[in-house]
Specification:
By secondary structure, the protein is α/β, with parallel strands linked by helices. It has 28 helices and 33 strands. It has an eight-stranded mixed β-sheet. The longest helix has about 70 residues.
């Protein structure tokens, strides 16, 4: 707030004009006043001399242009400095200012920057190095030919890369410069160092309040860390306290590495062997004055060629005037890149000096500073380079050999996860206290409720872990993943008041990233997302991604035996049987040799072929059953029968062969052709596929743009674990499970009903996961390479992944299927249907026969009644004939007609129901026949009643009801 008060106070000042330069519109000035706020007389003199020499340098000053110097002395009081700027510099219409740095503080340069910035007058600092001057919201027109302190982070990164240190601890003061150097280090590391194998990572950050009394507590925490490389930013006094306490804890002896900035390097107790930086020309104020003047002249020269420069402000009274040309001059100054006395001079967007050169200092005995290297500008490659004489460095402990920079722990915390066949997990029962010989205890710590369960682990990765521990000599504690996942990143809000989000890892990856575990031994896929945060060894197993599905078995329905022929063919066969039967019947019926018996038959020849026999014959020939009766008799019908027999032979043989192909020999193929199958890519298809959410396969699909449509469909179906997905594939609930090929090949080898579809895609490898910069990375990688060469990894594959089941499944594929009841159930049902049909028909036949018997009985009764009635009739006729004959006989003897007739008519045998007595004229039909057939002897004498003639039978059918 005091700066705003200064500006408001300066605006009210009434300052006299020293001179006024009149310019026509669009005309550039012919002379320029350059102000200087310097700390010593020598600097003022050198400033004037430099500008005088500049006027004769035609490279920077064209003909007709003149520069004048206007200087004032830097005052320790910033208010007085600001007033002097307005009174003695701005009133002289200065186009820019060169500002020195008062050793007692930064307030005076800041006052000059505030005042000049209010009028957009560029200010070039030659000694101010604080981070505050980089803030363009405050110091809007400030540049400097010296770099800020936090730019030393760039040199730190080059030194770490040169020495191969990948894990460091940063110690910095809790002020603007301390936080700036930390931010610069982290930003530059992620931006300029793409190779994760050499990128330096910060293991720990120690921040302290300036003017501290003791640093022991922080040092004790640092001593437990793995890194032994310390990067220190502190002022001279704070660095003395830190070095004192570090020496008391033996943290400045052999094995430790200290790299410090310029201020800490000047402490009076700097330890032996530490490395520090020293800015070249840091105290050469005259050189910086010269470079700043020439940079300004270069900018004005270029601006005159492109734009019109208006007059500079003349006083501090006009608060509403903004000098637009000052803004443009500041822009041209930032684009300068010239070779000066202090090296290559250039500026970044903040107006800070780039291409600054440093010396690398090694502290020796009695605080002796030994130059062992430098950070310089390479004119050929147009970039900064680091050059260090490694042999000239004496490290802490007076060692010539470079320290490792880390302390290697020999007892590691190892995490794994259940994933068959790599890791089998078995929970200990209440009666068990120890795991079996081939198992290793692997407790599970539930992070949610804090409980612990005891488990035992065995498998591919467990054997590999044992071999690694034996080969590279470390001990370990094994535990399961707290949340049961491999790990994926999630975005979380940093705070409730801001919209900033932070990427956090879960599962195994999160435990290693947060340094709660040292190593992951599991089927952990190597991918770019994970490799950005953790280290990976070389792959111990190469694999890819594939698709698991259930073999599409041919459905064994009740009519499976009908599959060899299509429905159309079966219908044609059925129709053909009856058509041939009908034609056979017609041929045999209309043939002259088939309808009637031969005249010389002996009674053994077959009957003629009827329609029922023809159908029986056709079915018998088709089903290859013996035909005992009902064969065709005519030659034409028998020719058709032979043709039908040939047709039946072909049909039966074809059916038999095709049945074997359908039910015995053919093995089903996979339904999917691979990841490029159109059914997977087409989201409209009703085909469910899934993977494990948050897994490496899930990340792979996220990266692949061409699989985005497919991923959006399968994302909703993703499972939490692979076991659940595989079980659903077996149960038919999931059609395709996309996962690592090693696991799916194991499942397919174990269960011959499962099969992997298509070729591998997304090829990668399983690696051992470690912390960034872990000292065990190289050792683990070398051991794995040795295991590959020795055949140990191949033996693990045979022991845990295949189990010999591959040969069994291959043999199963080549052998025919064994037909079971499921395949031939339809045939048995057909036989059962025939039996039931036969029983039904016999019941119908029995019922029909009973009906026929009843009808026959009624016919017999009627026939018997008719026969009895007919017999009675015959008796009457016989009696009547006898009486008539007797009457005639009597007439012939007695010649008394009418006597016998009257006697007969009055005979009591004839009741009234017959209509009373009848005369001879009412006789029954057939009487004449009876008379003709009466029995007479040779002389014509009557011998009795006539015999019954069998040749005559009265028609009594009309009497039967």
């Amino acid at each position: 707030m005091w700066s705003l008060r200064i500006v408001n106070f300066l605006i009210l000042l009434n300052m006299d004009e020293v001179f006024l330069q009149k310019l026509a519109p669009g005309e550039n000035p012919s002379y320029y006043n350059i102000g200087g706020v310097l700390s010593t007389n020598d600097s003022e003199t050198h400033f004037a001399t430099t500008i005088a020499h500049l006027n004769f340098d035609q490279q920077y000053v064209p003909r007709g242009i003149t520069y004048y110097d206007k200087t004032i002395r830097m005052d320790k009081n910033p208010i007085k400095t600001a007033l002097n700027v307005c009174k003695h510099l701005i009133s002289q219409r200065v186009y820019a200012m060169v500002v020195s740095h008062e050793q007692s503080g930064d307030l005076s340069p800041a006052a000059v920057s505030y005042t000049s910035g209010f009028y957009q007058i560029p200010v070039i600092g030659i000694s101010s190095r604080d981070a505050a001057f980089s803030d363009k919201n405050i110091h809007v027109s400030f540049l400097r030919t010296v770099p800020p302190y936090y730019h030393q982070a760039d040199v730190w990164l080059e030194m770490l890369s040169h020495f191969g240190y990948t894990k460091v601890i940063i110690i910095h003061s809790s002020d603007t410069d301390g936080r700036a150097i930390l931010g610069r280090f982290q930003t530059t590391s992620q931006t300029n160092y793409d190779d994760i194998d050499v990128r330096a990572t910060v293991e720990s950050i120690v921040e302290f309040e300036p003017k501290l009394d003791s640093f022991t507590e922080h040092l004790l925490e640092m001593k437990t860390a793995q890194s032994r490389v310390y990067l220190l930013y502190a002022n001279k006094d704070d660095a003395s306290i830190i070095f004192r306490d570090a020496a008391a804890l033996n943290m400045t002896d052999a094995g430790y590495v200290w790299i410090v900035t310029e201020q800490a390097l000047n402490a009076n107790n700097t330890p032996f062997g530490i490395l520090g930086l020293q800015l070249q020309h840091a105290h050469s104020e005259k050189e910086h004055i010269r470079d700043s003047v020439y940079v300004l002249a270069s900018a004005i020269k270029e601006m005159r060629l492109n734009e019109t420069i208006t007059e500079a402000p003349k006083d501090c009274d006009d608060s509403g005037t903004l000098w637009e040309s000052g803004k443009r001059i500041f822009h041209y100054l930032k684009t300068r890149n010239i070779r000066g006395n202090t090296g290559q001079v250039g500026f970044d967007d903040n107006g800070d000096r780039i291409y600054a050169e440093y010396d690398v200092i090694n502290i020796r005995k009695h605080q002796e500073k030994k130059n062992v290297g430098n950070f310089y500008y390479d004119g050929d490659k147009l970039k900064m380079r680091l050059r260090i004489n490694d042999s000239g460095i004496l490290w802490p402990g007076k060692l010539r050999r470079k320290p490792e920079g880390i302390i290697i722990p020999t007892h590691l915390k190892v995490l794994t996860i259940e994933e068959k066949p790599f890791v089998y997990v078995r929970k200990l029962t209440e009666e068990e206290f120890n795991c079996e010989d081939e198992e290793i205890p692997c407790p599970h710590f539930n992070a949610t409720d804090g409980t612990e369960n005891e488990f035992c682990c065995r498998g591919y990765c467990i054997d590999l872990l044992r071999a690694l521990a034996h080969r590279i000599n470390f001990t370990f504690d094994l535990a399961l993943s707290p949340d049961g996942q491999f790990g994926h990143y999630v975005l979380r809000n940093v705070s409730t008041t801001s919209v900033q989000v932070k990427k956090e890892w879960t599962g195994l990856i999160g435990e290693v990233v947060n340094e709660r575990a040292d190593m992951i031994v599991a089927p952990l896929t190597i991918n770019p997302e994970r490799a950005e945060f953790i280290e990976f060894s070389k792959p111990f197993k190469y694999q890819g991604i594939t698709i698991l599905e259930k073999k599409p078995s041919r459905s064994s329905t009740l009519v499976s035996f009908l599959q060899p022929f299509s429905n159309t063919l079966w219908i044609l066969v059925m129709v053909s049987v009856h058509v041939v039967a009908l034609v056979l019947y017609l041929l045999d019926r209309f043939s002259p040799f088939g309808r009637f018996r031969l005249t010389n038959t002996d009674g053994t020849e077959e009957d003629a072929l009827n329609l029922s026999s023809a159908i029986w014959f056709a079915w018998g020939v088709l089903l290859n059953s013996g035909i005992g009766e009902g064969t065709p008799r005519s030659f034409s019908a028998r020719v058709l029968g032979m043709v039908w027999a040939g047709f039946a032979m072909i049909i039966v043989a074809s059916y038999t062969a095709n049945l074997a192909a359908f039910l015995v020999l053919e093995r089903p193929k996979t339904k999917l052709s691979g990841i490029n199958d159109a059914r997977l890519r087409n989201t409209m298809e009703n085909l469910t596929c899934a993977t494990v959410k948050g897994s490496a396969v899930d990340m792979y699909f996220r990266r692949q743009v061409e699989l985005s449509n497919m991923y959006r469909t399968m994302e909703a179906n993703n499972y939490a674990t692979a076991e659940a997905a595989i079980q659903d594939v077996k149960d038919g609930k999931l059609m395709a499970f996309i996962w690592d090929s090693s696991r799916l090949e194991y499942e397919a080898a174990k269960d011959c009903e499962l099969v992997t579809a298509g070729e591998l895609f997304g090829r990668s490898g399983y690696g051992i996961g470690l912390q960034k910069g872990s000292p065990w990375t190289d050792h683990v990688t070398l051991a794995i390479l040795e295991f590959h060469e020795s055949g140990f990894m191949e033996s693990l594959d045979k022991a845990w992944i295949f189990h010999g089941n591959v040969q069994q499944c291959e043999q199963f594929e080549k052998t025919p299927n064994t037909l079971g009841l499921k395949n031939m159930a339809g045939v048995f049902i057909l036989v059962g249907a025939g039996i039931v049909g036969g029983i039904g028909l016999i019941i119908i036949e029995v019922v029909y026969k009973k009906h026929q018997i009843k009808k026959q009985k009624r016919m017999e009764i009627a026939r018997h009644a008719a026969d009895k009635w007919r017999g009675t009739i015959e008796k009457r006729k016989t009696l009547r004939a006898s009486l008539a004959m007797q009457r005639q006989y009597n007439i012939g003897l007695n010649s008394t007609p009418g006597t016998i007739s009257l006697a007969v008519d009055k005979h009591p045998r004839y009741p009234p129901r017959f209509g009373g007595p009848r005369g001879p004229e009412r006789a029954w039909p057939g009487d004449s026949d009876l008379i003709r057939n009466r029995r007479l002897d040779e002389k014509g004498t009557f011998k009795g009643p006539p015999k019954y003639s069998p040749a005559y039978t009265s028609d009594v059918s009309h009497l039967v009801v």
